[in-house]
Amino acid sequence: MTAAKAPFRLRMTVIGPILALIVLFIIGALLNPNFLGWSNLSNVLARSAFIGIIAVGMTFVITAGGLDLSVGSMAAFIAGLMILVMNTALPGMGVGIGIVLLGMAVALFAGLVAGLLNGLLITRLGIEPFIVTLGSMGIYRSLVTWLADGGTLSLDFSLRSFYQPVYYGGLFGISWPIIVFAVVVIIGEIIMRGTAFGRHCAAIGSNEQVAKYSSVRVARVRLITYAALGLLVGVATIMYVPRLGSASSATGMLWELEAIAAVIIGGTVLKGGFGRVWGTVIGVLILSLIGNLLNLTDFVSPYLNGAIQGAIIILAVVLQREGKAGS
Amino acid sequence: MTAAKAPFRLRMTVIGPILALIVLFIIGALLNPNFLGWSNLSNVLARSAFIGIIAVGMTFVITAGGLDLSVGSMAAFIAGLMILVMNTALPGMGVGIGIVLLGMAVALFAGLVAGLLNGLLITRLGIEPFIVTLGSMGIYRSLVTWLADGGTLSLDFSLRSFYQPVYYGGLFGISWPIIVFAVVVIIGEIIMRGTAFGRHCAAIGSNEQVAKYSSVRVARVRLITYAALGLLVGVATIMYVPRLGSASSATGMLWELEAIAAVIIGGTVLKGGFGRVWGTVIGVLILSLIGNLLNLTDFVSPYLNGAIQGAIIILAVVLQREGKAGS
Amino acid sequence: MGDLVTEVLALRDVSRSFGPIEVLHGVDIALRPGRVHALIGENGAGKSTMMKILAGYQPPTSGDVLLDGAQVGFASMGEAEARGISMIHQEFNLAEQLTVEQNIFLGREMKRGLLLDKPAMRARTRELLARLECRVSPDRVVSSLSNSDKQMVEIAKALLRDTRVLIMDEPTAVLTRSETAILLRQVRALREAGTAVLFTSHKLEEVEEIADDLTIMRDGRVVWTGAADRMNQHGMATAMVGREMSDLFPDKTGQPGDMALEVSGLSVPGHSRDVSFTLRRGEVLGVAGLIGSGRTETFEGLCGLRPATGEVRIFGQPVRIDHPWQAQARGMCYLTEDRKTRGLLLTKGMRENLTLQALAKFDRGLIDRRAEEAALDQAIADFGIRGHRGALVGNLSGGNQQKLLFAKTLLADPQIIIIDEPTRGIDIGTKQQMYDFIRRLAAEGRAIVVISSEMQEVIGLADRILVMRHGRITGELGADATEDAIVRLAMGVAPLSPEQETAQ
Amino acid sequence: QDGDTKVIGVSIPAATHGWAGGMNYFAQAAVERLEETYPQLDFVLATASDPAKQVNDIEDMVATRNIDALVVLPFESEPLTGPVQNVKASGAWVTVVDRGLSVEGIQDLYVAGDNPGFGRVAGEYMAEALPDGGKVVVLRGIPTTIDNERVEGFQAAVEGSGIEILGMEHGNWNRDQAFTVMQDFLSKFPEIDAVWASDDDMAVGVLAAIEAAGREDVQFVLGGAGMKEMIQRTMEGDAMVPANVTYPPAMIATAIEVTAAGLVSGAPVSGEFIIGSVLVTPENAETFYYPDSPF
Ligand SMILES: Nc1ncnc2c1ncn2[C@@H]1O[C@H](COP(=O)(O)OP(=O)(O)OP(=O)(O)O)[C@@H](O)[C@H]1O
Ligand SMILES: Nc1ncnc2c1ncn2[C@@H]1O[C@H](COP(=O)(O)OP(=O)(O)OP(=O)(O)O)[C@@H](O)[C@H]1O
Ligand SMILES: [Mg+2]
Ligand SMILES: [Mg+2]
């Protein structure tokens, strides 16, 4: 690995994910003409918004040297809680904007608290993030099953119809999840690149000791990353609930793995120290497009979808790390 | 974090996991007198052998700064392959020791190849282990579903009866999985502490550059850790197939998470540089005992089992990291 | 000059580029058995790069490496070592989580059959460390060692490998004088045994003391080479810097002003007890002591980097400091002695590092990049930082890293500055600039603590000197302190009389 | 335990999808009810997330709880056969629910749904509802033998009826995944006449996707397993949900009750009860509507 190649390599890590995305687009367009249609793309974008919003938060957590395995079950728990609260409040409040706002407030608050809890256990007790969030993953998953009594929590039908536009509606033909996702990404990118907080995350992930000696409030920054991730899980849930109006123990299954994968495909380093939000977006898009493509074509056995997905994930990263071979 | 406390802290990280294990034992004995009976303990030990054997391999991978998410689906794939090969060979070879040996050879060989593939992608192409093994996890999971045509691959019944003693039989009343697990652990512990290879793993995980400068063959050591893990997955599968006699897409689900959790509960550092095999064993035992304990009584809703499990995992680690608080 | 036949390792017309930038321009050097060759030059002159090429860690871009007169190209790290060339790196090259013994034998473990022969390795480790008069246990984890002990471990690691050529990149930068003496004794023994030794140091008295041959570099070129006895310290400094060197230390113009810092009964558990002192604006307070006397830990405790107890007043206000940012908010900053693991983010650029500690200054909602760039320009100019602007800090030369660390801390504009080992690895020309700079900071009315293991530095720079031993202050000396007085206090040998020395 | 107390172990898969959730609910409700009715009975209920865990649970029940009877709904048939055989060998009563073991004659009592029948009934309805043939898409469950049997039953039933199966994808009995798959089906096929969602959880996702796309060509969605919301819609005559096919999760409760009664009375009922899959239509929907069930 010589420094002489650095400029090229740098370019590859930047262009790599974009290139992988473009290749997917081309393949998609060739396989099925509907692929590039607005309705298909809009579908794909809207449904990748949940993972996307969460993955933006995950980017910060990972950049600061952390990890959060609990996001998927946290989302399920928050969705369950939100539905329960809204259903309970319905007789008193009636269908209206008020109850939707209440539900949203509950989701955001619960997300924030859940994130803070993870963060406090990690920063105050000094336990490995992997263990803390593996534990809370089990806890939230259990809690939602328990709340739902093993079944599914469903939002009252009238309430759901009222709330539904939050997923299906939109502005200028762009649906709300896409808009919210875009806003979160833009804010995330600005924070990551342009603010002291973003710098501090990268510094902590790069070398915690140096950050501490440089008067960075390490514990606080860490805590904020987890709290922000929790909050974003809340935001994602707000978009998720109106879609099907239900939550069960199967909700949010494996979202954590998908979010982490998106972050890493996007070029953020798993061990921390370097992160980029726009890369994460590309990672999310790559992951959702693969699924979409596999559904739009049927030249392989559906049993093998997972294999193709796995191979593409590896390829997408090979593409971007090309220059690193043999290092 | 003061140096004065170091001896105490050292002791806590050593005693911590053992203490957690003892506490679990006491709780178990109080809850149900049968808990400490040989038949129960033997069951628990035998069934934790699969994860245990894999976790020993995982300890090396993690110590050397790597990660392997694919072990669970790799086990499923190898089990499927092994069953397929044995069933196919049955008409020709007939039930006998020969066909069992063939099956075992297939499992070990497939495990080794799968591990080498992971290792080569990681060391030669320089891709993040997380991504490579996430990809291969999807691939193997798909392949076994495809091999089983969406259903279950079952070992021929007569063959299964013949092969069964490998799980259920044993020596001096100790069943084979326990013996094999013990042997793997002892060899693992010796390699980790007593050989140059073990030291090289820790050195690479601690600082790859330093290891390289000290003429440690970094890529080769890394590769060997993944290959050894693959081989151990093969060994675990050899014990697993006679137990259930079948493989499906549900086989080995989430084993990777359990194995990694066991390694970390045991005190190995997720970012690499320090590992201990005996700790991993304790981690494995803690995890299986929790499951066992929850079956001993029925004072909580089964929906909440996951929550209790999660809480205990966190507590077990809190116990051992006590001294680190505020660092 | 040298006899070609006896050269064991040499470079012929070697150039080396990193990206578009060439840092070595056609250099030659020849090492001969049984001789100590000193390589000196300013920070960033290319000394470390040259050594790495000699030891096979980096290939030259052009030119030849000659081993026993024959051209070689080392394909892997192990190859040069296998042929008897070993190198001690300027930056620590130890795996922090491994023990002393594991590090020393890393890559060369002794085996009995398939297993490690631990007793033998431990015994050999003890023996090597004993030769270096270093008393750390072979089972200590390296991350818990002090810098000087780490250096000793590195040296032991090199000594283990029976080498024909030993290359040492600033081995004495983190050592005290007595430890340096031990090291030099080992070097002499190796010379007697016929080893060719190449070493660099910014401490010219050492060079004068031990070198047989001397090569002086400037800006990637060899500017002088020959027998060492043809050069004195003054000549070396002049050749290195390329200008006439005046007096190293500035005048002590200190006008003590208001009380800045009052510390009483400060204790850092396990490291220091009951430390009390005061510091005024405009003052430079030196802190001397042997390695391991707990100076670093005491001041880290003061700044909230370790748990500590005691009473602290800053500008008359009683304060409680549990975290470094609280200290900084009160105007007090600590500049670490350990630039690599505590000071700088090696995988980031200069700009990110420079502004990390004072990021609030550049925060206008968003970070003002242009202001950052301007600050970097300023720092590069003020401290003479050399190196490619876009380079990763880990690729800067050691001395330039130190300068950047200095610039980074000062950017936070602290009123009370605690500088731990300020000139470690800095060339003599820049040292002079740094001393001037410290003085100027004092003159601006800041209060400064300089912790240093270089006795000359403390004496030359400080208005008052505290001496520590075993975590306690054993005495306070005036600006006119002698080395002898400091050593007596530091060693616990009865001083003349405490009252006599603490004149002020 | 004193000699009079008898212990019944109940081992079922965890509530990872709607039907399983319903089954969990009925199992727990039955256990609670029976513990009250029969003070001399003690129950152990364990839920498993995979076959291996289920085998562990059963081993634990034998080793630590000395169960006198086991009611098991096998996660998969093959892996559970051996362990259940061992339970039988220990002298306990064995009731197998829903999924038969791969060796005949282990169980004393067998209570099961009819998976090929489930697919067949659905297929027959489809053929009848689209007499001129039509284009349908199929959402499949988690790749398992159950799913295979159902799909084969369905395919056999629609064969020759002029119905064309445009595509099949796995929605894994999951609402979200079904939603995604259906969105993509709608993008892929400009003309779809009907959907066999094969499960009511998936039907929820499919209906949402169709509604969001505003596609008028899809005439109806046929789910399955009788989720109460779906039954209600059928009952109310919703044209999109004209029918359902039962696969009652309550069969576990039946099995537990029969086992308990047998154990208490000392006159155990052995045999086979196959609970056939029935077509639910607006006419008979009311009899399949259980508003208190979570499913
Ligand atoms: N890997 C690298 N990539 C880019 N530039 C490098 C790299 N290594 C060294 N350099 C540059 O080469 C020049 C010479 O560095 P070198 O470390 O050899 O200096 P030095 O003489 O050892 O200085 P010091 O006395 O400060 O240790 C410096 O400008 C440095 O920034
Ligand atoms: N991180 C650490 N953990 C545990 N012990 C440490 C650590 N750092 C240093 N020590 C020990 O603390 C003692 C004092 O450290 P150190 O040598 O840094 O003191 P010092 O007086 O600042 O000396 P110097 O600054 O000259 O190195 C030494 O015995 C050292 O081994
Ligand atoms: Mg250097
Ligand atoms: Mg110090």
UniProtKB/TrEMBL annotation, chains A, B:
Cellular compartments annotated: Cell membrane
Matching CDD domains: TM_PBP1_transp_AraH_like
Signal listed as a keyword: no
Membrane disposition: Multi-pass membrane protein
Domain of life the protein comes from: Bacteria
Annotated Gene Ontology cellular component terms: plasma membrane
Keyword tags: Cell membrane, Membrane, Transmembrane, Transmembrane helix
MF (Gene Ontology): transmembrane transporter activity
Predominant localisation class: membrane
Annotated TM spans: 12-32, 44-62, 69-89, 95-117, 129-148, 168-191, 223-241, 253-270, 277-294, 300-319
Presence of the UniProt keyword Cell membrane in the record: yes
PANTHER family: ABC TRANSPORTER PERMEASE PROTEIN YPHD-RELATED-RELATED, RIBOSE IMPORT PERMEASE PROTEIN RBSC
Name of the featured protein: Monosaccharide ABC transporter membrane protein, CUT2 family
Automatic annotation (TrEMBL), chain C:
GO MF term list: ATP binding; ATP hydrolysis activity
Membrane topology label: Peripheral membrane protein
Alphabetized Pfam families for the sequence: ABC_tran
SUPFAM superfamilies cross-referenced by the UniProt entry: P-loop containing nucleoside triphosphate hydrolases
Listed GO CC annotations: plasma membrane
InterPro entries: AAA+_ATPase (IPR003593), ABC_carbohydrate_import_ATPase (IPR050107), ABC_transporter-like_ATP-bd (IPR003439), ABC_transporter-like_CS (IPR017871), P-loop_NTPase (IPR027417)
UniProt key word Transcription regulation: no
Protein's cellular compartments: Cell membrane
Domain ABC transporter stretches: 9-244, 254-495
Classification via Gene3D superfamilies: P-loop containing nucleotide triphosphate hydrolases
Entry keywords, A to Z: ATP-binding, Cell membrane, Membrane, Nucleotide-binding, Repeat, Sugar transport, Translocase, Transport
UniProt-recorded name of the protein: Monosaccharide ABC transporter ATP-binding protein, CUT2 family
Organism: Paracoccus alcaliphilus
Phylogenetic classification of the source organism: Bacteria, Pseudomonadati, Pseudomonadota, Alphaproteobacteria, Rhodobacterales
